[in-house]
Amino acid sequence: SRTFHGNNRLLTSQIVSYYESINQCKKELPEYFNFASDILDEWAQMEKDGKKPANPAFWWINEGGEEVKWSFEELGSLSKKTANVLSEACGLQRGDRVIAVLPRVPEWWLLSVACMRAGIVFIPGTSQLTAKDISYRLQASKAKCIITSDTLAPAVESVLPGSQFLKSKLIVGQGSRDGWLDLKELL
Prior knowledge:
The chain has helices at about 10-25, 35-50, 70-90, 105-120, 130-140, 155, 185; strands at about 1-5, 5-10, 55-60, 65-70, 95-100, 120-125, 145-150, 170, 180. By secondary structure, it is α/β, with parallel strands linked by helices. Strand 1 (about 1-5) and strand 2 (about 5-10) form a beta hairpin. Helix 3 (about 70-90) packs across helix 4. The longest helix is centred in the middle third of the chain and has 18 residues, at about 70-90.
């Protein structure tokens, strides 16, 4: 393996070899796999135990130069808190569907990992969706929660009256909005 930022990384041939061994039944597949608990939490524990240096698991920089950097331990902890927000404040359960109409902000990835952790189906949508697109996705998916930014909330709200399955609305960003749960506040 080669070294990258002081960490051992698997070469492509090693990764392919590992998957080939699974396909040939030489390695046992786990009955259940959850990326958040099986991979992220494992790497976070390695950081915590000093077996691996704390390198960014997530590093985001916007066009203004603002940075958000989370280690594996930080991303693991934040995703657990976010999964609790989805389960408790939003009332979601394993198998429920969530639609996220967000630009690519750090919370997008945080919510994605939190949904994996909680067994909630994450349905991503871009900020370019029209009201008709959002309405169709809400009805077809039977989503129980919608997540959007404070700037996109007015457009999303225009289609919510026709959504019979929606139980909660979660907002991401700097501002708050009446009738919406605020992710930052809940965290």
